[in-house]
């Protein structure tokens, strides 16, 4: 995505606005600067990028903005649309569809053919799957599965993608028979 197409961030953009424009910003900030991933490095939704950078060893604001935007562009490359996934699954039966939601969510509604991502399944994948295996991960809305994708990519599974919009988008765009739901914490 060209930089001119990216949502604008300025030093005065609040963190709530940053996260609304760039949902992956918290992951990007934590990975590079150890900001926002735990209680000791948390930020306030009303804190501006300039304030955040100042209290974190005066990190240059433009450097942080550039990092958020480049991380976002990389995340976009890791996603597959529900339509692209449906088309791929129809022609390639070896695709591994992994559900990164909770067991309760998985038992309530599942995309056909998906396996619940458990520690045992991760171990099986790392010990016996080809590193070329096409892996599609999904969660409820497409945000948490990005962390799992990074984990698989970091272990050499280069054909790992996330279902953009998660099972919710899949239900809307591909299979309306799958019931949609809302998780209390997301509301």
Automatic annotation (TrEMBL):
<dbReference type="Pfam" id="PF00581">
    <property type="entry name" value="Rhodanese"/>
</dbReference>
<protein>
    <recommendedName>
        <fullName>Rhodanese domain-containing protein</fullName>
    </recommendedName>
</protein>
<dbReference type="InterPro" id="IPR036873">
    <property type="entry name" value="Rhodanese-like_dom_sf"/>
</dbReference>
<dbReference type="InterPro" id="IPR038062">
    <property type="entry name" value="ScdA-like_N_sf"/>
</dbReference>
<dbReference type="InterPro" id="IPR001763">
    <property type="entry name" value="Rhodanese-like_dom"/>
</dbReference>
<feature type="domain" description="Rhodanese">
    <location>
        <begin position="95"/>
        <end position="179"/>
    </location>
</feature>
């Amino acid at each position: 995505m060209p930089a001119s197409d990216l949502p604008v961030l300025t030093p005065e953009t609040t963190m709530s606005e940053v996260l609304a424009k760039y949902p992956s910003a918290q992951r990007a900030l934590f990975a590079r600067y150890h900001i926002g991933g735990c209680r000791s490095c948390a930020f306030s939704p009303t804190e501006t990028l300039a304030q955040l950078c100042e209290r974190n060893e005066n990190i240059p604001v433009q450097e942080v903005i550039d990092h958020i935007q480049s991380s976002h562009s990389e995340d976009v490359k890791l996603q597959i649309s529900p339509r692209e996934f449906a088309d791929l699954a129809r022609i390639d039966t070896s695709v591994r569809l992994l559900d990164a939601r909770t067991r309760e969510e998985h038992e309530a509604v599942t995309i056909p053919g998906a396996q619940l991502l458990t520690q045992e399944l991760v171990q099986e994948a790392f010990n016996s799957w080809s590193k070329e295996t096409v892996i599609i991960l999904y969660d409820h809305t497409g945000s948490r599965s990005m962390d799992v994708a990074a984990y698989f990519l970091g272990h050499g599974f280069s054909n790992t993608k996330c279902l953009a919009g998660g099972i919710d988008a899949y239900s809307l765009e591909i299979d309306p028979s799958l019931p949609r739901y809302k998780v209390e914490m997301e509301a």
